Amino acid sequence: MTLPGDWSDWKTWAILIAVIILLYIARPHLQRTFRSLFMGLAYMLNRLALWFGTAAANMYAKYCETVAAHLADEYQDKLYSHEARLGARSNKHDREILHVVGKLETSSQEIEGSVETLKQINLPQTTLDAVRMSLAETVNAKSQARLTSAMNQVKRTVSAEIQTVRPDLQNIRSHLKPIGENVVKLKTYGQEFARLADRINSDFDVFEESIHSDDRVAVAQKQSILIPLLIALIVMFVALTGAFLNFFLIARPMAEIVGDGLQILGMPLPTAAALVVIFLEAVAGIVLMEAAGVTKLGFFLTIGVAGRRILFWAAFAFLCGFSFFEAILAMQRDSLIILDQQTQVMALGDLVVEEPAGVSLIMIAQIMLAVVIPWLLAIAAIPLETVVKNSVFLLRIVGHVILVFLSNFFRLLSTVVKSVGLFLLRLYDLIIFLPLAIEQVVQTVRHAGKAGKPDEART
Amino acid sequence: MMRWLAAALSLVILAGCGAIKSNSRAVFVLVDASGSYARTMEESITTSRLIVAKLNPNDSIAVAQISSCSFSDDSVVFNQRLPGIPSQASHMKQAIFGALNAYGEGFKSSDFTDIHGALRYAANELEANRATSRYVVVFSDMIEDLAPDCDTSELSLDLAGITVIATNVTKTKADSSNPDLYDERLATWEKIVTDAGGQWRHAKSRDQLLDEVF
């Protein structure tokens, strides 16, 4: 038997021709099927790409809107803070300005008094009177001597008159320096207010823009997400490292309270208890910061001011209690270590050396650390807000990027499927190119025949 | 109040689900008091003290001597369970050291060595203990020399769930001339223990022993 691949055999050629003829006959149906299959698939993929593209755009728009709203919130808080600062400063500055103005008024009155005194001095008249008097007194003297006497008299009189003016001039001079200082002060206040006003205006512009601007993307792009998130994560990491350290400090003495020997989910009971204490401290810290208004995680939106105040003091009391509790545990830990060391020494058959009584420096350090750590955990609640909010933003951005990627991927896939379909159709035609060429020739001849017939009729 | 109730309820639920379990261990120390082994008593007492020192709160410890007829309450030096509170456990450990030292100073060597009876006694005691891991530590040369009136060689043993650790197994003069005897002796005891459902270990040093138990 000959193989179909044996080209020297006529049967192979016969099969090939038969296949080509079959393909030629089935061409319209098969090509339609191919076209439906590939183009339909490509269309579906393209629709999917469009859907993902729309979803990505919607997600980005929502992200921009949320970021803009967050920005508006942030700047609203900033403006409130500016308002409070401005109020406090204006009250202080009002008092200071009043004081400065009072001083200026006093100086001005003093100067006015001095000026009045100076005004009353009529030096020409005084000089004239002095000359007259001198001349009258020296009626019998010679003219030269009379003149000399009169001049001396004038000199004395003018000197005496100027002597009376000097204190007033000194007074004016002494007032000039404080006036200058006060004027500088007023200028400083003015500049400070101008700076603050500029900042307020700038913040207000951003606030306005974040609320009213139609270009939400531009508004969102002004707000950095990653940097505050990274800073917040670093702060949290530091605080949580403290918590981790604390966990090791309290786990051992915790056994004195809850006992040892049991395991919860594979974890020793004192370890589990220490974890619970740390979680409680963290919760108390979060409540404290939220109730104090430092963070705005939104737990207490429905609680009034009085309720918040109660929660604040409750959380504060809890944290104080935890500090005290941890200090006791630190002390207990120290005594446990000493007891264990004594037991080990006795086990080896050595004599136990009594530890000196009193509190060691290490113990003091442990107590201080134990007191501080609950508050450190409370501080960790501050960046928590940024972490939560910015993580949500970041997730949205990541979601947007994934959707954009999917959209592009499906678009590419659609193009590939479409191209593959077209390629297969061309390949199909290539396989049956001979019958197609014959068909084309026949059609051309037939067309030429049809075209020739009217001419013949006409002739 | 509500929080404590919730905590208690959670503990009950966790315990019900098997999430809470004990990780305590029980150690039964058997010290050979026969004349051939008596010279190593000091070493055995020191090692026993170290075992006690490494125990955790809620663990159990018992020390008994292998004597002529060991399946007896008289052979027990002490049998204690440490309190769950670490400081109390440490104080009890120190008290146990005192008891061990007193035993080491006042013990009298026996004429015979009934290891079978001692193992049976230890297994019985450990069976009553609900500890997660149970060990019998044997300080002996592992040469059984039974009294005519106390032949326990055919005594049945049930050592399921128990690890028997032979330590400080000293070599006799006969072993020195034929070391195979020593290995055969240990192999025989290994077979006895494993046939009884227990696990056999031979700790050649103190550190190895402590590593096996802890």
From TrEMBL, chain A:
Keywords: Membrane, Transmembrane, Transmembrane helix. The chain crosses the membrane at residues 12-30, 225-249, 269-289, 310-331, 357-381, 393-413. The lineage of its organism: Bacteria, Pseudomonadati, Pseudomonadota, Alphaproteobacteria, Hyphomonadales. It comes from the Bacteria. It comes from Hyphomonas johnsonii MHS-2. This is Transmembrane protein.
UniProtKB/TrEMBL annotation, chain B:
Residues 27-172 form the VWFA domain. Signal peptide: none annotated. Gene3D superfamilies: von Willebrand factor, type A domain (3.40.50.410). InterPro entries: VWF_A (IPR002035), vWFA_dom_sf (IPR036465). This is Response regulator receiver domain-containing protein (CheY-like).
